[in-house]
Design a protein that fits this description.
Structural class: alpha+beta
Order of helices and strands: HHHHEEEEEEH
Distance between the termini: 23 Å
Shape: globular
Length: about 140
């Protein structure tokens, strides 16, 4: 998981975009990051919407990750065999104002390795935003 999110730990600005994988957002990258069922839904959603998909990056639950930096990673095994990963991000707007956020990843072991099974967005709002709910899969 740390490797999957490493692209979001790069410097802010033009250097950050240069460090992003060339295949970012492609079906191949989505399959490397998400469980098979969630990857299939994300890929199908992108095709239905003419490539725009859900309209945001499902890894960071954001529209623009060019000024997004991870602060740390915490991992906690769960009773169901999954691992919960808490990742605080700093997100900067064009004027340099920081909008910190915390994402909670539910990671699942698959034959291909650990993959993201769910992302919960905790941006200080009353209700968390769930990737599965956004996709209508909850």
């Amino acid at each position: 998981m740390r490797d999957a999110l490493a692209v979001y730990a790069s410097p802010v600005g033009a250097e950050a975009n240069d460090a992003r994988p060339a295949d970012r957002g492609t079906p191949a990258q989505i399959r490397r990051l998400f469980t098979p069922a969630l990857a299939q839904r994300l890929i199908r959603d992108a095709a239905i919407e003419g490539g725009a998909g859900i309209g945001f990056d499902p890894v960071c639950m954001c529209n623009d990750d060019s000024a997004l930096v991870t602060r740390s990673f915490e991992f906690a095994p769960q009773p169901d065999g999954r691992v919960r990963s808490t990742v605080p991000f700093d997100s900067f707007d064009s004027s340099g104002v920081n909008y910190p956020s915390v994402l909670i990843y539910s990671l699942e072991q698959t034959p291909a390795g650990w993959r993201i099974a769910e992302v919960m967005d905790r941006r200080g709002t009353q209700d968390d935003v769930s990737l599965l709910q956004t996709l209508g899969l909850d």
